[in-house]
Amino acid sequence: MIEARELTKTYGTFAAVNGIDFQVRPGQVTGFLGPNGAGKSTTMRMILGLDLPTSGTVTVDGRRYQGKVWPLHEVGALLDARAVHPGRSAYDHLHSLAAANGIGRRRVDEVLEEVGLASVARRRAGGFSLGMSQRLGIAGALLGDPGTLLFDEPVNGLDPDGIHWIRSLMRSLAAEGRTVLVSSHLMSEMALTADHLLVIGRGRLLADTALPDLIERFSAGRVEVRAAEPQRMAGDLRAARAQVTLEPDGTLVVLGLRSRRIGELAAEHGHVLHQLHDVSASLEEAYFRLTGESVEYRAPAAVAA
Ligand SMILES: Nc1ncnc2c1ncn2[C@@H]1O[C@H](COP(=O)(O)OP(=O)(O)OP(=O)(O)O)[C@@H](O)[C@H]1O
After folding, report:
1. Key word ATP-binding present in the record (predicted)?
2. Is residue 81 part of a domain?
3. Which H/E stretch holds residue 298?
């Protein structure tokens, strides 16, 4: 379990992380989401002890970082996949990490196999593609078989096969009872991987929620109706104080009445309905609405000529 209390990191007067509280529980994948510059990497660096909080605390399994980087058998992390000496082979890189942590050679072979790099283990890491570097970084995180794992943007540079692989890896690590925190700025990717979400924007926590609850929160009771007589149906719905929009394809988008009541109303007025369904927000939509105010770097809107 990772636990942050009032966690804050300031650079001069700028608060990159601004008094956030959260728990990352074992046995599930927790997605850490937010726009560029939201404070995800800074938070992860503080969890790992690579950066000290300006104030507040963060603990891993109830313990505070004690001035040394967490040993690999406690916390494994993928932060910057390119942070490998370019002249070293994948094997040598992992072996030196292993040796510094009292981990045997056999485990190096195991993780190389697990991440699919066994056949290129003797090649220079400097010649690796971004996807291969990501795999090497992940191998480093797994080396000590730790109970807590942090992955910063792990699918960067991976092809669809690689993306699928990393999703299953995260899920199986969580299923083994480990604590897994994965950062991303892509909601669509997290939708397929995470059980729980922490959403951050401008250094503040915007949501700490199970995935379905986030969707529910932004769905706002929108109902779509297709009726044999859309105009007459719209009139009857408006008379019942609903807000109704008639789309060009004849669909009525209704706000302010639940689908059950709309069905009853249709029966009362003798309408034939072809479709009646509650529209839930997509996760992407929920995310954009949640973070809309906190996007730091946005392309300027096109100026009309
Ligand atoms: N060493 C530093 N000195 C000054 N400002 C910093 C430093 N490190 C980070 N920041 C600022 O803190 C904010 C948060 O950065 P951080 O890298 O944590 O964001 P992020 O959510 O990981 O973004 P991204 O998705 O782009 O990686 C940014 O505005 C960044 O410019």
Report:
1. yes
2. yes
3. none
Domain that residue 262 falls in: 221-280
Q: Is 297 in the pocket of ligand 1 (CB under 6 A)?
A: no
CB 68 within 8 A of CB 49: yes
Q: Which two tokens stand for residue 86?
A: 């370019």
Question: Do 232 and 153 have their domain in common?
Answer: no
In angstroms, what CA-CA distances link 64 with 4, 94, 115, 158, 264? 10, 26, 30, 34, 59
ipTM of the complex model: 0.95
Residue nearest to atom 17 of ligand 1 (CA): 41
What global pTM score does this model have? 0.79
Q: Which atom of ligand 1 is nearest to the CA of 17?
A: 14
Residue 298 domain-assigned (yes or no): no
Q: For the segment 95-131, what is each residue's pLDDT rounded down to a tens digit? A: 999 998 899 999 999 999 999 999 999 999 888 888 8
Which residue stretches of the chain are H helix? 40-48, 90-100, 105-114, 130-142, 160-175, 187-193, 211-219, 230-239, 259-268, 283-291
Q: Please give the distance, rounded to the nearest whole angstrom, from the Cα atom of residue 1 to the centre of ligand 1.
A: 24
Instruction: Mark whether 49 and 159 lie in a shared domain.
Output: yes
Number of domains in the chain: 2
Identify whether residues 92 and 59 lie together within a single domain: yes
Q: Is the CB of 184 under 6 A from ligand 1?
A: no
> Does the Cβ of 42 fall within 6 Å of ligand 1?
yes
Q: What CATH number does the domain containing 54 carry?
A: 3.40.50.300
